[in-house]
Amino acid sequence: MLNLRELYEGFWTVEQQWFQQHQPQSSLAVLEQQSNSIAPGTNTAVVENTSAQEPMTEDCSFHYGEWAFLLAGLKPCLLIQLRTPDQTVLFFREVLAPFFRQHEVTLHQLQIDYSLITRPVRSPEMDLRGFILVWNKDMVSRHPQRDRLLRGIDMLCGSHSSYSLPSAPNESAARVIADRTALISEEDLAMMLDLPGRLPETESEIFKMVEVSYWHERPQDLETTQASVGNELGTGVQDHLTLLTAFAAQPDEIPNIRQHFTTYRDRVQELFGIRLRISVQSMA
Predict the structure, then answer these.
(1) Interior angle at CA 249, CA 245 and CA 252, nearest 5
(2) What is the DSSP letter of 57?
(3) Is the torsion defined by CA of 103, 106, 110, 111 positive or negative?
(4) Torsion of CA 96, 102, 105, 110, to 10 degrees
(5) Largest CB tally within 10 Å, which of 110, 152, 217, 258?
(6) For residue range 241-276, what is the model confidence (pLDDT) as tens digits?
């Protein structure tokens, strides 16, 4: 059996090491607290939070959680973006490409592929050129929306000179606009990334919008946490919360999102020992 946990922990390690080397000095203290020399998934308690009243350590640059979701077969695609395009390209060259070479045989067996997006392509919300796309080809091939996923991947990572266009307008939201920049819809991106929320479509939905985020909760003190087994919150332990993913949603989507979170929580707990936490906050 392929060792998924080894792939997860290997990526976690190289990503943490890379950020320690490249973060600005002012951010190193926070990063070191997050890393804390604790292997990921050392505590199996699960905590949910919908009020988000307590402080959370937020760094959208970490992608080891999304990598775990991809390995677990929960999402077909992963989009990697760092703070600047130059930093993303550097991450591609110094972390992702060497990692894929090191684990080439295993990742080939898992049918996981990756590409730096070099084509002029954007969504209505952002320019995607310079991002990194990682995808699970086996999951894509078995997905109910397989054709849409393939068109989206082709739109993002196909060659500059030729890429597939939909044969009918309603077959895909990906299209080419006048300046030859490819445009992919937020709906197609959300499907590729398995995000169960949607952006507001009307003015009233703007005021109702909520932000949903999934966090990795890791104890600061392993020995203290192990001594407090049986207490869900680990009394006396200051847990570190690292942001893994976030997306916008509408209140009527919350029941489906909770089901989505439960599936993710249980799966990554089983495979990697990751303790997930959910936060839902009003953006009004």
Answers:
(1) 135
(2) B
(3) positive
(4) -30
(5) 152
(6) 889 999 999 999 999 999 999 999 999 999 999 999
Q: Give the Cα separation of 269 and 214 in Å (integer).
A: 13
Task: Kindly compute the dihedral angle of the four CA atoms of residues 264, 268, 271, 272, in this order, to the nearest 10 degrees.
Answer: 170
Strand 121-122 and strand 182-183: the pairing is: parallel
Please state the pTM of the whole predicted model. 0.76
- Residue 54, classed as helix, strand or coil, is coil
> Distance between CA atoms of 253 and 240, rounded to whole angstroms?
28
Q: Mind listing the pLDDT tens digit for each residue in 124-157?
A: 889 999 999 999 999 999 999 999 999 999 999 9
What is the Cα Rg of the chain in Å? Answer: 19
E strand spans, 117-238: 121-122, 132-136, 175-176, 182-183, 210-219
Q: 92 phi and psi, to 5 degrees?
A: -60, -45
The better pLDDT of the pair 202, 132 is held by 132
The H-or-E segment that residue 127 falls in is: none
pLDDT of residue 225: 37
Task: Say what the alpha-carbon torsion angle 92, 98, 101, 104 is, to the nearest 10 degrees.
Answer: -70
Question: What sections of 165-241 are H helices per DSSP?
Answer: 186-193, 203-208, 222-227
Per residue in 158-200, pLDDT (tens digit) is 743 223 333 333 334 344 443 578 899 999 999 999 999 888 7
Q: Which residue is associated with the tokens 């049918």?
A: 111
Residue 210 three-state SS: strand
